Amino acid sequence: MTQHRRSHARRIGLFAAPLAVSALVLSGCSGTSGSSSDGSQSFSLSYAVSTGVESPFETLAKAYMAATPGVTITLNAVPNDSFSQTTSTQFQAGNGSDVIESQPGSGAGQGIITLAKAGFLEPLDDSATALIPSGNESLFQIDGKTYGQALSISFVGNILNQTAATAAGITSFPTDFTGVLADCKSVAASGGKSMFVLAGAAGPNTGATASSIAATRVYAEDPTWNQDRTDKKTTFAGTQGWKDTLQAIIDMKDAGCFQSGAEGAGFDAITNGITTGTTLTMFGPSGSAADLAKAAAGNTYTVEAFPPATSSDKAFGLASANYSLSLNASSKNKDAAKKFLDWMAEPAQSKTFADAQGSLPVTGLADLDLSGTNYAPVSDIVKSGSYVAFPNTGWPNSSVYDALGTGVQGLLTGQTTIDSVLASMDAAWDQ
Predict the structure, then answer these.
(1) Structural domains in the chain plus CATH codes
(2) Average pLDDT, whole number, for the chain?
(3) Residue 7: is its pLDDT beyond 50?
(4) Burial level of 299, CB count in 10 A (0-12/13-18/19+)?
């Protein structure tokens, strides 16, 4: 994977969170839409939802319809934990939405490269190409053709409920792993609370947890690790940093870092725990901080990077364009859909999306002043470029990330070992 920018990945979800945003014109099973009864062109849009607050996709769809009389956008809000499977099934059946939320690269079921190679996506125009973050071309393009339109930049790490943390006696986020374990034990000893919340039964969240920890254990040392794996210069099983990443999860479990029953918890445990303050920190994309602030007024949330092993190790993170839009190659409403994508590419809409999502704009990242924002704790990492894109965007197929997520679940229950998890990831990569 390449350095620089963006995720979710996805909301409390590449990573976490329950379901459903209300949709303006909600179609339960998606499908492309035809022209409306008055002859004006309309189209459908599918996207993943997490918390119950209004999605940025819905916000902008409303704005577009208001600015374009006669156009109706059928919004298909799909629960985050089933989005990849749902969209893949719809593409196979030929009834996918005209426009879908996609993910750069090939490491997820809705990955741009995966879908484009399968013939499901339509090439986009220059306005989409201009938005590709520098160095991320391989995540959006095949043979010079662009198949996804980047929307904003997400930092993937930890979201801290600063209000709840202060109440629990945690005045600052730990700076090394020893501090993590100490804070975990301190919070657990207070009774009824945990330092971290984990949706252990949800592969996307367990995968995000391991990926966030791997930022300092693997990618800080070798930012081009994904390319090295592609070139067969290394393996998961042969990389000490990946072993250390998974050992850290076991150590956190043993130190009481996660909430009781974490191994069987779903996405709802994250939003419930982090908004009520019974858990202080979640793993996920930075946009979740804005979602949580809306859902739990009175709490302050900050974006944090998972600490390195020791205080002398380099602070490092994950930041990339994990949110994008793509056009269904079989759409019967391509002209109408392309007009919407061109509108979304304009600076005003890019800023609106980033602001609504609580993420960073897709351009001009190095010039941002993040002091006084919830990104202040990771400002130095972002400004110095000490990050790579979310790991799985550069992995060859979604099975590798699935193996990571499932493997972490097995570590939580004691049903698998570090060596077997890494072996399964190598096998998935080479399949």
Answers:
(1) 43-153+321-364 (3.40.190.10), 155-318+390-430 (3.40.190.10)
(2) 87
(3) no
(4) middle
